[in-house]
Amino acid sequence: KLTHARNQRDAAVLEAARSEALLTEESGFMEAEHMERTYKVTQKDLASHVDISSAAKIFDLSLPDFGPYSLSYTPNGRHMLIGGRKGHIACMNWRSGKLGCELHLRETVRDVCWLHNDQLFAVAQKKHAFIYDHTGAEVHCLQKHIEPTALGFLPYHFLLASTGMTGRLVYQDITEGKVVGEHKPGYGPTHVLEVSPYNAVVHMGHANGVVTLWSPQQSLPLAKMLCHKGPVQAMAIDSTGKHVATSGLDGRVKVWDIRMFRSLHEYTTLRPAQSLDISQRGLLAAGWGPNVTVWKDALTTQATDPYMRRQLPGSTISDLKFVPYDDVLGYGHSAGISSMVVP
After folding, report:
1. pLDDT of 306 higher than 70
2. Exposed, middle or buried by CB within 10 Å (0-12, 13-18, 19+), for 273?
């Protein structure tokens, strides 16, 4: 009996130690004291106060010959895909630094997008959209996607959506290869396309300041919103599908409640924001000129000061993305790829 009780106690201790990995700590942010400001904390200061694995997530890839770069992360946040405007494509496990494949297409690349996992990715090239596998081999040429400028993927429907210089929105099933929807909004060339992670509705931003919402089987837009007085430059949708952030050529970043189609509040940047993203914790990041600005609680309330800020002199931010399930923000610019820790 004593031996059996001892074995049970040892097994309980072992199970308790294993379950500690599943106990997530309380989420928190940096807090400034007295006259301090969180946006004055640099990445160098953070690297000296975090653990080694977190400090390794702060890096800069110098690639000045093929920029500006756009990037995409897999849904689990492990792999990163980068695409330079002059034809440089690379996918990698950014945590371990292991390179998956690298291509030089010698053709204009306007956008890149992972598909359902790290085995396939799509590239918006000069004339058509192409699908490649993780080894860099060309799998498909999607000729219905003419001169694409922006790509979006619906992971639960296996649909690849694109828009481009023709202004059309094309949905293509990547399992059978059929085009399941093709719409013509009639607003000219479009460069902004985002997919809602909540209900997979595609949001398109147009040159007249209008944002339209689409689904594959509806020939007319589900809704229209006049968001800006000038062209829409960038857009981001939060994980709950309730809030949408848009930036326009008028230098304003607006936060919208998509349920009421009403503007909640807005922020002003000195130059129009070229890229926006919203983290899973509700942080709003904007890339404008050589600056990256992050606001905390920016969706529900009007933030007075930025939460974090970083500047890259001599570069122009072209794209930025939060890493899923991690406190990291990756961004592409004219001189390469960089990453910063956003606790």
Report:
1. yes
2. buried
Question: pLDDT tens across 151-172, in order?
Answer: 999 999 999 999 999 999 999 9
The 10 Å CB-count burial string (b at 16+, else e) for 143-169 is ebbebbbbbbbbeebebbbbbbebbbb
Cα 21 from Cα 68, distance rounded (Å)? 40
Spatial CA neighbour of 315 closest among 301, 331, 330, 328: 331
What end-to-end distance do the CA atoms of the chain give, in Å?
50
Q: What is the mean pLDDT of residues 160-187?
A: 94
Burial 211-244 (b: 16+ CB within 10 A, else e): bbbbebeeeebeeebebbeebbbbbbbbeeebbb
Residue 56 contacts residue 62 (beta carbons within 8 Å): no
Helix/strand/coil percentages in the chain, nearest 5: 10, 45, 45
Q: Which amino acid is located at 64 in the chain?
A: P
pLDDT at 35: 77
In percent, how much of the chain has pLDDT > 90?
71
**DSSP letters spanning 108-147:** -EEEEEE-SSTTEEEEEESSEEEEEETTS-EEEEEEEEES
Contact 177, 160 (CB under 8 A): no
Nearest to 296 by CA among 37, 51, 104, 48: 37
- CA-CA-CA-CA torsion for 96, 114, 106, 332, nearest 10 degrees? -60
**Rounded to 5 degrees, what are φ and ψ at 330?**
-105, 145
Residue from 279, 286, 283 nearest 319 by CA: 286
Residues in the chain: 343
Give CA–CA dist 107/87, Å, rounded: 5
In this prediction the pTM is: 0.87
Q: Say whether pLDDT at 26 is over 60.
A: no
